[in-house]
Amino acid sequence: MKKLIPIFLLTSLLSSCGGWVIQPLPGPTPFLPATPTPSIFTPTPVVIGVASATLIISTSTVTATFTNSPTMVVSATFTASVTYTASPSGPAVSIEVLGCNTSIDVTHGMGEVTNAFVTLNNTGGVELRNLKVTLFALDEGTQAHPDKTVELVALPVGNQVTVKLTVDSTYKQESPIQVEVTSDQGTFPREGLASCTDIGLLAPNPNGLETPVPSVP
Length: 217
Known about the structure:
By secondary structure, the protein is mainly beta. The protein has a domain at about 95-200: Immunoglobulins (Immunoglobulin-like), CATH 2.60.40.10. It is about 5% helix and about 30% strand. The chain has one helix at about 5-15, and strands spanning about 95-105, 110-120, 130-135, 150-155, 160-170, 175-185, 185-195, 215. It has a four-stranded antiparallel β-sheet with strand order 1-2-5-8, with no helix packed on it. Strands 4-3-6-7 form a four-stranded antiparallel β-sheet, with no helix packed on it. The protein is globular and about 45 Å long.
């Protein structure tokens, strides 16, 4: 009995080291939640919503080429246009009948007469001298009017002159007429009209008749 007491005490001392008089049976290890992997932070920040632009520099290269030419050739073409207007060297005259009117000539014992106004223009290259301008009418009477022919001393080159010619004509009849010009330089072709138009108020000034003046261009 005395031996059993020390054994009991030894057993009690060993049991008191765990804090429990009766040690619990070993059980399974309780469930522990999984430990998440810690986040790793880097020094480069993450930017959301910002576009990244790349700057592109375009470089243009200009290459200059210099060529030394020992000879300079200048080619110039000049075109000269010369118009020559040939002026007649001989005698020439233009005849223009301006118009007519009628009147009664009692002075010369005639009834109705026809008066024609004619302009002569010296278009030739020589002066015309001793001109004779004569009027002819188809219905002309047998008696020649004193103003049937008008004589001019001279008509210089580039000058014109207007004359009045008169012939005896049939009463109230429109008659074809012709004008003939002769000079010391020759006879020129006649100029005629089928019917001499009434000149009316456009008759030339009587004071300017038979006087040469510069031709109108």
